[in-house]
Amino acid sequence: MNLRKLLALWALFAGVWRWGRGNPVALLLALAGLGGWYGYEALYVRPQMAYLGLPQATRWADPMTWTRVFRNQGYLAGYSELRGDPLWVIYALSAPPADAPHLKRLNRFIADGRSLTRIGHDDYDKSGYDRGHMAPNHAISLLYGRAGQRDTFLMTNIVPQTAALNERVWERLEEMELDRLAPRLGKLWVVTGPVFEGGTERLKSAFRVEVPDACYKIYAAQGADGAPRFLAVVVPQTVRGNESLDRFVVTVDEVERRTGFDFFPGLDPKLEPAAEGKIDPVFWQVGEWAAVAGRYGDRKGKFTGRE
C-alpha cells in the first residue's frame, strides 16, 4: 500500500475514533465494518475487475499520479482530483448478447458525488473540447444494461478530447474492440486514459479540468498458450481523424513511460520484456481493421483510409 492510501486510511480511522471514543462497543463495530468493507473492495471485488492487478503509479511521490479508485457498473476508474480526469479506466469486453437492447444515449453527463472536484456537464460548455468517454457508452450499455450506461456518463469517466479525436479515431477504436477483437478473443481487457506531457493546459470553462496531450488504450488478452498478449495505442489530440489506426500503435512500455504507471503489476517479470516491450500485429490482426471506417461514417467528411 502506498503513502497516500495510508494517509487516507489514517484520516478515516481518526475520524471514526473521535466519533466513537465515548462508546467503545460502537467504535469496535464501526472499525470492524470499515475494515471489512475495505478488505472486500480492495482484496476481492476490484481485483476481479482488472487484469493482472490495478495500475500502480511508478512515481508515487508525485501527487499528479495519485488516484482514487471508483467502482462502477462494468468498469473501474482511477480518478485524479488534482487533474479533474480519470488517469486510468479498466473494463472487460466480450461478444454482446444478440438480443441486447440498444439503449438511447443520455442527454447529459452526471457529476460524480464521490469526487471532491464535482465536475459537471456544464463545465465543458464552450471549452472547445468534447466530453470524451473512457469506458464506452455503447459497449458497456450492451453488456451491463441501463445501470452500466448511466455510469459511463459520470464525469469521473470523462476527459477533454478534440472533436477529431473523440468523434472519429476514438469512435473507430471503440467499434473495433467491440465488433472485432472481443468476439474473436472471447474476453478482451481494456485499460484506457489520458497522457499529459509538456506544459499544463486547463479548460477555459473549468480550471479544475486539465487537458491531456493524448489518450491511450491498452488491449490485453490471453493467447492460445495462456500467455498474456498486449496491444497499445497512443492517439494525440492533434489527429485529423482519417489516419490509419496502425499509425498510433506503440508498446506497453512506452505508455507506461509516458504516463508513470505500471499497468499490469501482476505480470510475471520473466514475461514482461516480450509482452510489454514488443508489438505483435499478427496476433491482433492489425492489418484487418486499421483502415476500416467507423460504423456511423466520418462525421466531418469521407474516410480516406490509409494515406
Main attributes?
307 residues; two-stranded antiparallel sheet; seven-stranded antiparallel β-sheet; Extracellular Endonuclease, Chain A; disordered C terminus; 34% helix
List the helices and strands and how they pair.
Elements: H1 3-20, H2 24-48, E1 56-57, E2 68-72, E3 75-80, E4 85-93, E5 130-133, H3 137-152, E6 158-161, H4 163-185, E7 188-195, E8 202-203, E9 206-210, E10 214-222, E11 228-236, E12 249-250, H5 252-259, E13 261-262, H6 272-277, H7 281-284, H8 286-289
Antiparallel strand pairs: 1-13, 2-3, 3-4, 4-7, 5-6, 7-10, 8-9, 10-11, 11-12
Helix pairs in contact: 1-2
Structure summary:
Pfam families: Endonuclease_NS. This protein has 307 residues and is α+β, with helices and mostly antiparallel strands. The chain has helices at residues 3-20, 24-48, 137-152, 163-185, 252-259, 272-277, 281-284, 286-289, and strands at residues 56-57, 68-72, 75-80, 85-93, 130-133, 158-161, 188-195, 202-203, 206-210, 214-222, 228-236, 249-250, 261-262.
